[in-house]
Amino acid sequence: METTIKLTPRQYELRKFLWNNRTEWKSSKEIFAGVAGYESEKTAYKGINKDIRRINRSGIFDKKIITDRTKGYKLATKKEFEEWSRKAVVEAKKKIAYVYGVIGDAAKDGQGIIPGLEGFDRQFYDCFVEEIKKEEAN
């Protein structure tokens, strides 16, 4: 994959920190202590999440960083990444189904379509929302 996103020195340091601790989950507190450049321990997680998204999308590294709200951050093994990606897709589909339902309810109440979401059409509904309903029924 061709690199399209340039990383900052802090992002490289974060990746190196997780590589050096690749068998362990690391909390934002541990990353704050081990990687220079985050403003405060209380807000470090926001910068860490943004940095991880950029690292994962940079095209530089094959191994991806996964996150878990209860465990923290980790450089994933193949099996861990497969589990994480399956869970992420299910969560995304549920969120899409929820948002679609809220938009539909808003239209019934006279609020109309939320600006920027006019593209929520029948094909979208069939693709994601109906799939989630079927999964939840089983």
Description:
The chain has 138 residues and is mainly α. Helix content is 58%, strand content 6%. It contains five helices and two strands, in the order αααββαα. The chain has a two-stranded antiparallel sheet with strand order 1-2. Helix 1 packs across helix 3 and helix 4 packs across helix 5. The chain is elongated, with a radius of gyration of 19 Å. The mean pLDDT is 85.
Question: Features of this protein?
Answer:
mainly alpha
In short:
The protein is mainly alpha-helical and 138 residues long.
Secondary-structure blueprint:
Layout lengths: L8 H12 L7 H7 L9 H14 L7 E4 L3 E4 L2 H31 L13 H16 L1
Antiparallel strand pairs: 1-2
Helix pairs in contact: 1-3, 4-5
Strand ordering within the main sheet: 1-2
What gyration radius follows from the Cα positions, in whole Å?
A: 19 Å
Category from helices, strands and their pairing = mainly alpha
Secondary structure tally: strands: 2
Tally of helical segments: 5
Low-confidence parts lasting 5 or more residues at pLDDT below 50? none
Separation of termini? Answer: 39 Å
Order of helices and strands: HHHEEHH
Which descriptor suits the 3D outline? elongated
Query: How is the biggest beta sheet arranged?
Result: 2 strands, antiparallel
Strand content: 5-15%
Mean pLDDT: 85
Question: Percent range for helical residues?
Answer: 55-70%
